[in-house]
Amino acid sequence: MADSVTAARDAALVRPPGPHLAEGIVTHLPRRPVDVDVARAQHRAYVAALDAAGWAPVVIAPADQYPDAVFVEDTLVVVDDQAVVTRPGAPARRGETAGSAAAARALGLRVATLEPPGHLDGGDVLQVGRTVYVGRGGRTDDEGIRQLASLLAPVGRTVVPVPLGPVLHLKSAATALPDGTVVGQRHLVDADVFPAWHEVDEAAGSHVVPLGGDRLLMAASAPETATWLAHLGYDVVTVDIGEFEKLEGCVTCLSVLVPGR
Fold first, then answer.
1. pLDDT tens-place string over residues 130-176
2. Are strands 182-184 and 174-176 parallel, antiparallel or unpaired?
């Protein structure tokens, strides 16, 4: 695993799980025991899958005092050559952002930071073409959305707020395929916001990470959705992230992908 990579290559920002992972915040699920050793092995396999798909791993500095720090997506939103450092909705997570900001700068990205009183988690941000959908729920508020819209307008992005149901983040309920079709579960999100929608039965079927071309990364816990996508012609790579799913994590949460420039 590489600790740094030039901005010319596709990079995946990641942070291995810390010793207090099992104490991570759980909001919409009952708490279940988390095996940290198993989680570490699952994370290594997840990073290896990204690496094999051409995304060079870049390890963010440890933040072991923060149980949820492995979920790096919540700390950073990358659009073109700009990285927006978020202000997480859970106060206990705000110390996670310093390492992510430093990693973004090391990749040569322009860095901007959300300011109080706004709150925004990166897991609420879904980019589809030049439209940026932002979930408005328990972790992201109107002021956070307003600030993000202001920062992204100069790079030609339109921000669209999306009301959420009983779900942690927008990308816990819906993500997008390479052709722009959003897959998800409409009882958790206002599906009518999206121009193209496909309903999936499996909760983890809502979570896809486009890796370039027709390749997708998905959790092993959505085999029926993976089979459907394979029949559509996608090259589906599956990984077991079961220990992270106990903490409301999914395949999108564990990395920030930064395309080479």
1. 999 999 999 999 999 999 999 999 999 999 999 999 999 999 999 99
2. antiparallel
